[in-house]
Amino acid sequence: MSVSNEEFAKDKVELKVLGISYSQLQSGAYAMLLAEIDGPYRIPVVIGSAEAQAIAIKIEGVTPPRPMTHDLFASFAASFAIELQRVFIYKFEDGIFSAEMTFSYGQREVTVDSRTSDAVAIALRMNAPIYTTREIINQAGTIMDENGNQDESASASHADEAAMPRHDADEYESMSLDDLHKRLTRMIDDENYEEAARINEIIRRREQE
Hints:
The chain is an alpha+beta fold and about 210 residues long.
């Protein structure tokens, strides 16, 4: 599906990525949490572990020793002056989100279909905006109450805005900053970017205290 610029302009809601958590809807998967900009709605999107890692390391500022697939794509596009204009999540059906990416090259504009997780991972690397429709927000979104807490009646997913998986949180919290940096280096060397992103988050929080 390709949406015309006129149709797109009529019904668009800009989103930002809040983070990644374990999915409570599907074992072994993750939930990417998207948030309405200047609005109360959040959309949890179930994604695979590889895509979760790609998104998490970009959010947390972890630099892998070798480019990952989405990094390679972004570098390739930049080398040929191809710009990503936008990602548009245009459909939600049977629990699956469909997205498209609009690229520009000189005077030419091309729109291609994409998995939502791949589109978001690339958008983060190419500094492109992410949009959806008000209809999808109403279908799949959760809403935050006046205290900033998630209204659990609005969604079965209850994705956590804190973003990162926490099954090793106690271990990491008890480590010194020096040990955390050593562990971070080891995780990057092992290409365990999910754990690296989690450790990096704790390091950043500690250094800001």
